[in-house]
Design goal:
The complex is a heterodimer.
Chain A: H1 2-14, E1 27-28, E2 44-46, E3 49-52, E4 55-57, E5 62-63, H2 74-80, H3 82-85, H4 97-116, E6 124-127, H5 130-144, E7 151-155, H6 160-172, E8 175-179, H7 189-195, E9 200-204, H8 218-228, E10 232-235, E11 254-258, E12 269-273, H9 301-337, E13 343-345, E14 356-361, H10 366-372, E15 376-377, E16 379-380, H11 393-397, H12 402-405, E17 408-412, H13 419-438, H14 441-448, H15 482-491
Parallel strand pairs in A: 5-15, 7-8, 7-9, 9-10, 10-11
Antiparallel strand pairs in A: 1-2, 2-3, 3-4, 6-12, 11-12, 13-14, 14-17, 16-17
Chain B: H1 2-13, H2 36-43, E1 58-65, E2 70-78, E3 85-93, H3 96-109, H4 114-117, H5 122-129, H6 136-174
Antiparallel strand pairs in B: 1-2, 2-3
Helix pairs in contact in B: 2-3, 3-6, 5-6
The chains are: A alpha/beta, B alpha+beta.
């Protein structure tokens, strides 16, 4: 009886109407059955617009961040829904119809994914995402061959999960070579050749970079790997469904794929593991031996069905999307370039995926630009947007100078981006950049003809060896006060 | 009694309603949240501009480094006799918090004595703008900018005074 009382009270208190004078104009999303430990700040929506985190905008922002994630294609959602509410069996249940139909769905999803990369369905295993696939590839392969192979080669522009897995291997005693990249973002094939050792167990190069969008020369890299008989792993999360991939032509042994970058559901990915010649991998998830023993755990049927549907759509629409996105990219770049100068495209312009446009605006800082571009959802490689004061490591690896690295903005163009969105984004960008350049002392100095590069550091207390920009010719105090030196430490100057 | 007990249990279990104030709670480890004032200073910056650097009444403080992502230029126009700052303007290359810090500083120094503004502390700026810990260097830079501007003005004045002293001596020597 106590429990009934409790339940009744709970129901009554939670369903109480929330109207009171101060809330009359706003509707706050309530989460009555929330057991979340931290109360997330709610989104406040009213007739005048949306307010969240102190920022007020007139409606939902334009989405130009497709590299971060993509909206689920409605056709994919249609394919997934039956497997949530009516055909909800576990694909590993062998004894009844629910299991059999679920298993059929998983196998057809597998075939759809395999078809997109010209592989056999037997070579695809499903994981929770590209991060997990990367972990399995790098750590799994090296742990399996740890007696004979102690060396891994990767690049400096890889995704964080790859770099972190390599660091983990380094802590275990393996050797890792981080190859530098050329200023256009592509790796130097000669350097790759030189760094291969007899005990190299894996080479990992991502196909399309998530920050700058450059496409690495996978076929040439595959040839080198075949020559030296080293397995090649590639993180193709950004490349799947956007550029043609053929695992045989590129001689790829392992490939990480992600669902939510190709208009599929979040929480699913895949790992391609070559069978001829066979590459062995030590599993990172132990359990019932699902997915050929490489990744135990119940395979999520609806997510797999969604992933498969997304892959099939991608195969059908890749060419059309590519043409359309290329035109939109040109439109955006022209729209920005005809109004303002000092715009630099980061990364190679020829070997580049059209849907990723990473621009640096000189004399303007990235976070302040993002703050002004609150009606457009984009991301930046600026220091202020990461926890430390350092700009993105990918841009640094390209050799972009620090002040330009602080100003980069990444525009992502996708299947659902419209021309109006592109025009509006270009217009807003131009407006904000002009406003910030008015406020920028660097732009002023450049207009006056002072070369900023000659001046490393401004300040009234000078660090020895730096030129002080001051017309009155103050003499510098030779020592730094302790607070200034702390400041410098924080600023890494 | 059971009803009361249930109410007590539920009372502790219910999430509290979020407060209506627009000020954002700054939590440790949360992603950047902009205080309303920072957004306001960014959208409507006060006193953006430049004075003539060569003007003897103008002190210019230029601090920061492009490599670190923050450069602030703060200029003050000082009245010679009273030593009061009559006008100030700024230009900043930096994130929203840096722009807001320098904008706030130009507002605060106007109408104050030069010695007074040297006592403006970065903690006051940070509190006014509710800057999160990761943005405190913006307020420190703003404090440095004030000091640099004041120092620049004083150096200029000292130099012009010494030139004035040298000239009558020369005249006496010529005569």
């Amino acid at each position: 009886m106590t429990s009934k009382l409790l339940a009744a009270l709970l129901r009554r208190s939670l369903l109480k109407p929330t109207t009171s004078s101060c809330y009359s104009t706003t509707f706050i999303h309530r989460r009555p059955l929330s057991t979340a430990a931290a109360i997330v700040e709610p989104l406040e929506e009213d007739a005048n617009g949306i307010t969240m985190k102190g920022v007020k905008i007139s409606g939902r922002p334009l989405y130009l961040d497709v590299q971060a994630t993509s909206p689920v294609d409605p056709r994919v959602l249609d394919a997934m829904l039956p497997y949530y509410v009516s055909r909800y069996g576990n694909p590993h249940s062998r004894t009844h119809l629910y299991g059999w139909e679920s298993e059929n769905a998983v196998e057809s999803g597998r075939a759809q994914v395999a078809a997109l990369i010209n592989a056999s369905p037997k070579e695809i295993i499903f994981t929770s995402g590209a991060t997990e696939s990367n972990n399995i590839s790098i750590k799994g392969v090296m742990h399996f061959y740890k007696d004979k192979k102690r060396h891994v080669i990767t690049t400096q522009t890889e995704h964080k999960c790859v770099l972190d897995s390599c660091r983990h291997l380094q802590q275990e005693g393996f050797d890792v070579t981080y190859l530098p990249v050329k200023p256009d973002g592509l790796i130097d094939l000669e350097k790759l050749r030189e760094s291969i050792r007899p005990d190299t167990g894996l080479i990992s190069v991502m196909m399309v970079n998530n920050e700058i969008g450059v496409i690495q020369p996978m076929e040439e890299i595959g040839k080198i790997c075949k020559e030296f008989n080293v397995p090649l792993h590639t993180d193709a999360a950004q490349a799947l469904g956007k550029i043609p991939i053929d695992v045989d032509k590129m001689n790829i042994s392992l490939m990480s794929l992600s669902g939510h970058k190709i208009y599929g559901p979040k929480g699913i990915g895949a790992l391609y593991v070559r069978r001829r010649p066979r590459i062995r991998v030590e599993p990172q998830m132990n359990g019932g031996g699902q997915e050929r023993g490489l990744r135990s755990g119940t395979v999520p049927t609806p997510l797999v069905v969604g992933f498969g549907a997304a892959c099939e759509l991608a195969m059908r629409e890749m060419e059309y999307d590519d043409k359309r996105i290329k035109a939109l990219q040109e439109r955006l770049l022209d729209g920005i370039r005809e109004k303002i100068d000092g715009v630099v495209v980061n990364g190679s312009t020829e070997r580049r995926y059209a849907g990723n446009l990473n621009l640096s605006f000189a004399y303007v800082e990235g976070e302040s630009l993002l703050m002004g571009l609150k009606e457009v959802a984009v991301s930046s490689g600026s220091a202020c947007t990461s926890a430390s004061l350092e700009p993105s490591y990918v841009l640094r690896a390209l050799g972009v100078e620090e002040d330009m690295a602080h100003t980069s903005i990444r525009y992502g163009i996708g299947r659902f981006t419209t021309e109006e969105e592109i025009d509006r984004a270009a217009e807003l960008t131009v407006k904000q950049v002009e406003k910030l350049r008015e406020m920028s002392p660097l732009y002023e100095m450049v207009k006056e003809g002072i070369d900023i590069k000659k001046v490393a550091h401004f300040g009234y207390g000078v660090v020895a060896g730096r030129i002080q920009l001051d017309q009155s010719g103050r003499s510098s105090s030779g020592h730094l006060s302790s607070r200034e030196s702390n400041l410098c430490l924080i600023r890494l100057c | 009694m059971m009803r009361q007990a249930s109410k007590m249990i539920l009372g502790q279990g219910l999430p509290s309603l979020p407060t209506r104030t627009r000020a954002v709670v700054v939590g440790a480890g949360k992603p950047r949240m902009y205080h309303e004032r920072v957004v306001d200073h960014y959208s409507n910056p006060r006193n953006v501009g430049s004075f003539d650097k060569k003007d003897p009444n103008v002190g210019t403080g230029l601090v920061g480094a492009p490599a670190c992502g923050d450069v602030m230029k703060l200029q003050i126009r000082v009245d010679d006799e009273s030593g009061k700052i009559v006008d100030a303007c700024f230009k900043t290359f930096g994130c929203g918090s840096a722009i807001a810090s320098s904008s706030v500083v130009t507002e605060w120094v106007k109408g104050k004595q030069m010695e007074e503004v040297l006592s403006i502390k970065n903690t006051e700026i940070a509190k006014h703008l509710s800057l999160p810990p990761v943005k405190l260097h913006c307020s420190m830079l703003a404090e440095d900018a004030i000091k640099a501007a004041v120092k620049d003005y004083e150096t200029k004045r000292a130099k012009s005074n010494s030139i004035e002293e040298a000239a009558p001596v020369k005249k006496a020597a010529d005569a």
